[in-house]
Design a protein that fits this description.
Structural class: mainly alpha
Number of domains: 2
Protein name: lysoplasmalogenase
GO molecular function: alkenylglycerophosphocholine hydrolase activity; hydrolase activity
Strand order of the largest sheet: 1-3-2
Oligomer: single chain
Strand content: under 5%
Keywords: Membrane, Transmembrane, Transmembrane helix
InterPro entries: TMEM86B-like
Radius of gyration: 22 Å
Order of helices and strands: HHHHHHHHHEEHE
Main location: membrane
Length: about 280
């Protein structure tokens, strides 16, 4: 069974609202210089759709969904940031509010990705790039922006570091592809915000809005997809029995392992009256 393909088939329908609302945003292409509550809603809808995607994929207060809850929180704060940035042309304070909302979102993403494995060499290399990015923006920064942008850039690259650190390309982990989604999402976030920063503080970039929003929505999609490595009922159809195996079953017909239990988010001690068996994977 090709599990990534199975999961994609499961999550695909849940992503339809995201793609529809993204298309609506580009089709309407409302004037950014004339912000309204309607234009704010249209801009926020794709990210709000990803919030629904995370909720539909599974949510609870248990440790199993700690990662999903943090990603959901990051998406919610991102949507708030989107709404504030709509009004930045009216009053510059809204840009700062938006930065704060996105900074909180990045912190939640960083905590979600975790700090194990640490991989300090990767972090050191990315920190050097972050310093270079700040150096490019610094000549155009004045007042409070000198500090806020510096902190924000640090959070951006910290997020990418943690996304890259948890990615093990040569691992046999079936869920490496979801970690790759998170890593690519973090990278696209940096590209999007770099374009935004250069356009706002240094020089105008042609087609900046289209470039910024396309990379931004793709970034949020990648990060949201990373919750797919959690247990999904639609992808656990290979579980056939939990309890004592059929006495007439052949060893070739069933396959039981501790790894399978861990993959499904279950623990062996939960099955005190028997063992969990699944169809042999061909």
């Amino acid at each position: 069974m090709n599990r990534p393909v199975t999961v994609l088939k499961s999550v695909g329908p849940k992503l339809v609202p995201f793609f529809k609302t993204t298309c609506i945003y580009y089709i309407l292409w409302l004037d950014a210089d004339k912000p309204t509550l309607f234009s704010a809603l249209i801009k926020c809808l794709p990210v709000l759709s990803l919030c629904v995607f995370v909720l539909l994929h599974g949510m609870s207060l248990t440790d199993m969904h700690t990662y999903a809850r943090r990603i959901l929180g990051g998406l919610v704060f991102s949507a708030l940031g989107d709404a504030f940035l709509i009004w930045q042309h009216i009053d510059g304070i809204y840009f700062i509010y938006g930065m704060v909302m996105f900074a909180i979102a990045h912190v939640l993403y960083i905590v979600s990705f975790g700090f194990s494995p640490l991989r300090l060499p990767v972090g050191a290399a990315l920190f050097g790039v972050a310093v270079g990015m700040y150096a490019v923006l610094y000549p155009g920064l004045h007042g409070v922006y000198s500090v806020l942008v510096g902190v924000y850039v640090l959070l951006l690259w910290l997020m990418l570091w943690r996304g890259m650190a948890r990615l093990q390309v040569f691992s046999t982990d079936l869920w490496t592809w979801t970690k790759l989604c998170a890593c690519v999402g973090a990278l696209l976030f940096i590209i999007s915000d770099t374009l935004l920063g250069v356009n706002k503080f240094r020089i105008p970039i042609p087609y900046n809005r289209a470039l910024i929003m396309t990379t931004y929505y793709a970034a949020q999609l990648g990060i949201a997809l990373s919750v797919a490595d959690l247990k999904d009922p639609a992808t656990t159809d290979d579980i056939t029995t939990c309890g004592a195996p059929d006495m007439g079953a052949s060893p070739n017909d069933v396959h039981c392992s501790k790894d399978m239990l861990e993959l499904k988010g279950m623990s062996a001690h939960s099955f005190s009256n028997g063992i969990c068996c699944s169809k042999k994977m061909h």
